[in-house]
Amino acid sequence: xxxxxxxxxxxxxxxxxxxxxxxxxxxxxxxxxxxxxxxxxxxxxxxxxxxxxxxxxxxxxxxxxxxxxxxxxxxxxxxxxxxxxxxxxxxxxxxxxxxxxxxxxxxxxxxxxxxxxxxxxxxxxxxxxxxxxxxxxxxxxxxxxxxxxxxxxxxxxxxxxxxxxxxxxxxxxxxxxxxxxxxxxxxxxxxxxxxxxxxxxxxxxxxxxxxxxxxxxxxxxxxxxxxxx
Length: 229
Ligand SMILES: [Zn+2]
What we know:
The chain is of the alpha/beta class. The protein contains six helices and 13 strands. Bound molecules: zinc ion.
């Protein structure tokens, strides 16, 4: 069976291995997307109106292939930000966004928050700029066997961070309380087991992680912004 990348439409014998602890069948040889991006793409395509309706989109730390695809969609008003990446359209600190309140219909933020020392401030800012009826996918690596998040602001050296958090630029390991941390920032969170609605052949063919949950965040209307400060 050939593997197929829904992001770039290409088929291959296999996806490439990827990761510090290498995962087989992970990276698309053509566009570079990983398991989580292919799942995101399939989710956006089948479960949202993003590829159809006019929407204002904020993409944090943009993956180049995804930015290219979304920017090419004329019905989207797309903007990407990053603190340092030259790929992003604007340079911005996620904990201090310069956008007005209620600016975006959709926010995509993949594997960013585990790098941010004050992730709570970042979550509150993302919530602030999300429109009342908007939605955000805020995905981070979550270790399901950990009940609570492990972080220690005293661990700053890259070598120590790699030892403690698994990657030299990570500042924590999220546990099952990731959900609660998002809710504490004023989101209503739904963990969507979308991948489990797909048949095993498709999961294999698209090179997906069969256990991945998608964190869909909407604005909790009952929480006033000032109460979060
Ligand atoms: Zn691809």
